[in-house]
Amino acid sequence: MKSLPLLLPLLCLSCPVFAGERVLAEFTAQDELRWQTVNDGVMGGRSRGGPTIASGTLTFAGVISLENNGGFSSIRTRRSPLRLKGSEGIALRVRGDGRTYKLALRTANTGRWIAYWAEFRTTKEWREVRLPFSAFAPTSFGRKLPGPKLDVGQVDSVGFMLYDKQAGPFRLEVERISAYDAQPTPARAPERTRRPRRMSEEPTPPPAPAAITRLLGRAVELGAPLYNAGNHRACAAVYAVTAEALLAMGELPEDLAGSLRAALAESGGADARAWALRRAFDAIYARLSGQPEPPRSRAREL
């Protein structure tokens, strides 16, 4: 991870653009706002990307590589309260290369590995995009989580991410980032007829234990091959991301949560930390699934 200081507006909350909008970043003032670049190199990938500023426009550009299980590039602002409580969502003025990007929000009351994503498509022409806060889903390590729900008043970082698993160059230009307020609901005439009942088209979220065991399975699926290939540090990082996501969900019994916190605090090196987290995962899996602990692989393999 690297930090890149750029000349951007810090937070121009008093500069209205349209009625009910407040500018968060317009890229024309001379205040310094620090952006961080996080590419898939943190997990061994080879994608390249980062931000530049010119003529009042933030450009996020680079090249996505799928080598070494890579495939993403991202930028985000340094932590600073954005004071979004009372707003309805985020408005962007953007243009791009036709690819689908993610706007990522982070909050002060969740771990650094949890981000809230909402997608938006780009065209070669400038366009206004509005993303209501209700569209942002909690994620960790690219996986959707059942919670926690976005706390708008706690948002302290905003960023952009490309994670569409398509190799090749990319380019996103951003002219403005704003927060917009809810619009008054117009009065409607009383309905004379009863509306037919509608069935939700969204799937019912899985019970917490099922979501947890799926998250554990994905962590082992990603982390164990890394460990067995000798990359203990990457395995420990994958397991740590999962552990923080599990703790943020707040669904674990206290004794299991305590074991997970102790494993995260393991200071004996990447190898010891990977094993401590794996044992904690196995204990959680056994408790929540009501099944015997999964059998161990052969000695010193995760």
Which keywords apply here?
Jelly Rolls, 23% helix, alpha+beta, globular, 302 residues, 6-stranded antiparallel sheet, 8-stranded antiparallel sheet
Short description:
With 302 residues, the chain is of the alpha+beta class. It contains 4 helices and 14 strands. The strands form 2 sheets. An 8-stranded antiparallel beta sheet has the order 1-3-6-13-8-9-11-12, covered by helices on one side.
Explain what you see.
The protein has 302 residues and is of the alpha+beta class. It has helices spanning 208-228, 232-249, 254-264, 270-289; strands at 2-7, 21-25, 32-39, 48-54, 57-64, 73-77, 87-96, 100-107, 114-121, 127-132, 137-140, 143-144, 155-162, 168-181. The strands form 2 sheets. Strands 1-3-6-13-8-9-11-12 form an 8-stranded antiparallel β-sheet, with helices on one face. Strands 2, 4, 5, 7, 10 and 14 form a 6-stranded antiparallel β-sheet that branches. A hairpin with a 2-residue loop joins strand 11 (137-140) and strand 12. Helix 1 packs antiparallel against helix 2 and helix 3 (254-264) runs antiparallel to helix 4. The longest helix is centred in the C-terminal third of the chain and has 21 residues, at 208-228. The protein is globular, with a radius of gyration of 22 Å.
